[in-house]
From TrEMBL:
UniProt KW Glycoprotein keyword: no
Subunit structure of this chain's protein: Homodimer.
CC cofactor: Mg(2+)
Positions of the Phosphoribosyltransferase domain: 57-147
Protein name: Adenine phosphoribosyltransferase
Natural source organism: Suhomyces tanzawaensis NRRL Y-17324
Any GO BP annotation: purine ribonucleoside salvage
Signal peptide stretch: none
Record-stated family: Belongs to the purine/pyrimidine phosphoribosyltransferase family.
Length: 188
């Protein structure tokens, strides 16, 4: 393990200790991973951003794309730390002007996301960030929007991953998860 990886692992350990798990929210059988406690303490929020920044290292990043809603909680701060722009992916009907829209499949049913047309210059290097990678539907949708704007996806970054849903298999680009997630579905 490199010294950078070791530093990230130490930050991750402290951050992980501050997560909360809520069983059966929002529905039975779901173990909800609440990462909001990280934002209640500035030193933890700073560590979250530092850990991602260390991981990104000297890779060129022009834009951080964050997914509504929870990807908005740290996406802009990470963008600032990387001296990159921030671009939101929003739920339908929220963005003014011409938009690209995609429909994508989640665990149960489909959903839609939008991004403003032309907001990312062709060939720009893009990081896509969100709190959780579950089925990968949301991240896949965001990736399609970046491609419609002809951006170049460098990597997907998440705080947590629900490994058993294998969302990363849908993304076709490198995926980094800061904190280890749930290896198995909650059984009850
Ligand atoms: O990998 P997936 O199966 O797509 O699931 C992950 C997404 O689900 C949650 O968002 P949610 O749509 O619940 O809304 P929120 O961010 O507005 O709370 C989470 O914040 C991720 O964005
Ligand atoms: N288990 C979970 N906890 C928090 N957010 C989620 N989004 C999808 N699955 C989730
Ligand atoms: Mg979300």
């Amino acid at each position: 393990m490199s010294s950078t990886q070791q530093e990230i692992a130490e930050l991750a350990k402290e951050l992980k200790a501050n997560l909360k798990q809520i069983p059966d929210f929002p529905s039975p059988g779901i173990l909800f991973e609440d990462f909001l406690p990280i934002f209640t303490k500035p030193d933890l929020f700073q560590k979250l951003v530092n850990a991602f920044k260390l991981h990104v290292g000297d890779q060129k990043v022009d834009y951080v794309v964050g997914l509504e809603s929870r990807g908005f909680l740290f996406g802009p701060t990470l963008a600032l730390a990387l001296n990159a722009g921030f671009v939101p992916v929003r739920k339908p009907g929220k963005l003014p002007g011409d938009v690209h829209q995609v429909e994508f499949q989640k665990e149960y049913g489909s959903d839609k996301f939008e991004m403003q047309k032309g907001v990312i210059p062709e060939g720009a290097k893009v990081l896509i960030v969100d709190d959780i990678l579950a089925t990968g539907g949301s991240a896949y949708g965001a990736g399609e929007l970046v491609k419609l704007n002809k951006g170049d996806i460098v990597e997907y970054l998440f705080v947590l991953e629900l490994d058993f849903l294998k969302g990363r298999d849908r993304l076709g680009k490198p995926v980094f998860t800061l904190l280890s997630g749930q290896p198995e579905k909650l059984s009850n």
